[in-house]
Amino acid sequence: MRIAIVNDVIMAVEAMRRVIAGTREHQIAWIALNGAEAVERCALDTPNLILMDLIMPKMDGVEATRRIMANSPCAVVVVTANVNENTSKVFEAMGAGALDAVNTPVLKSAGASEGAHALLAKIETIRKLIGDGIGKRTTARPERTRPIHQHPQDCLVSIGASAGGPAALAEVLGDLAPDFPVPIVVVQHVDSHFAEGLADWLDGQTPLTVRIAEEGDHPEPGTVLLAGTDNHLVFTGPHRLGYARFPIDCSYSPSIDVFFRSVDRFWKGDVIGIILTGMGRDGAEGLRTLHNKGHYTIAQDKASSAVYGMPRAVANLKAASDILPLTKIGPRLSQLVAQRMRAHA
Questions:
Q1: Of 72, 113, 158, 162, which residue is the catalytic one?
Q2: β-pairing, 113-114 with 106-107?
Q3: What are the E-state strand segments in 96-237?
Q4: Thinking of the domain 152-344, which architecture would CATH place it in?
Q5: Whether residue 189 lies in the annotated active site
Q6: Chain mean position to CA 1
Q7: Phi, psi at residue 173, to the nearest 5°?
Q8: Which residue in 35, 61, 107, 132 has a CA-CA distance of 20 to 30 Å to 71?
Q9: Active-site residue among 282, 295, 304, 321?
Q10: Is the separation of the CB atoms in 20 and 28 below 8 Å?
């Protein structure tokens, strides 16, 4: 891949340059010393991947990511001195379209870089995502969506998101009432090191309780459970969550597709499946499985998506009952659940 570096600290730039130069399959596209320069360079020469710092003069990494995704979209990974000390800005950047975040490698003696392995692992993940493509359009006709009629607690809202997901999740969850009577489980592509920080941040954006899903958890109304390890979040029984290492050949772990397939296998009630903004196609096949079983499915529309990859894959598979702008997804969820409650009354 052609990789650009955006960082105003020369030593950080050199550390990343050496990591990339040490591989055979990647090369440096260009180097920018601030966000404004990066926006200009990207418009003239869009690389496959940008390694974006957060704190820079003239324009920070959040605003640079937002402008790049609007005008010259490409994969962006936040590379900053300390991810854990900048979680708020990391989530802002991810809301603007960044895919992931990692600590900046540090130069050591003999030219070695501490943190090189972690950076290369992120780059490899992005390479796989870019290689996934979107897939061929299918004309297969889904089964008719079945009516929503069971008790609300027999329903599950399952959401998958990637690049741009934190901000999108905050919007959707923030639109729900504190007494929303259906459990919600979320798989957001995020490094396990700051999954807890994302849960805490989302908890402050919604009247619902947001926390990391733990082994053996049971989804409950009023609570949003967020995948929180590098293993796959899955249902291991009709109402029991757990984590699984396999399959290991997924572009992302936790995988949205793996989670949706476990929902289809174990959840006995109705499901409302949602795919939000993100690169690649993770979740599209799993959502189609749910859709073809008669469950209600929603994909975010192109105009409101920070990265229109995963929702586009859903649209291409004709796997969505609804394709909605972000601001209408939360209200639609509330409407669907209200219909269930009236039918049960």
A1: 162
A2: antiparallel
A3: 100-103, 106-107, 113-114, 156-161, 184-188, 209-212, 223-226, 232-237
A4: 3-Layer(aba) Sandwich (3.40)
A5: yes
A6: 22
A7: -70, -30
A8: 132
A9: 282
A10: yes
Give the SS3 label for residue 4.
strand
Pick the catalytic residue from 189, 232, 291, 295.
189
Biggest alpha carbon–alpha carbon distance for the chain: 72
Q: Model's pTM, two decimal places?
A: 0.82
Q: Where in the chain is the domain with CATH 3.40.50.180?
A: 152-344
For the record, the structure tokens of 103 come out as: 């600590």
Model pLDDT for residues 224-280, shown as the tens digit of each residue? 999 998 899 999 998 999 999 989 888 888 999 999 999 999 999 999 999 999 988
Tell me whether residue 113 is one of the annotated catalytic residues: no
Contact call for residues 326 and 300 (beta carbons, < 8 A): yes
What is d(CA 255, CA 5) in angstroms, rounded to the nearest whole number? 28
User: What confidence tens digit (pLDDT) does each residue in 121-140 have?
Assistant: 889 888 877 764 433 333 33
- The CATH number given to 2-132 is 3.40.50.2300
The ranges of the chain annotated as CATH 3.40.50.2300 are 2-132
The answer to whether 162 is a known catalytic residue is: yes
CB 203 within 8 A of CB 211: yes
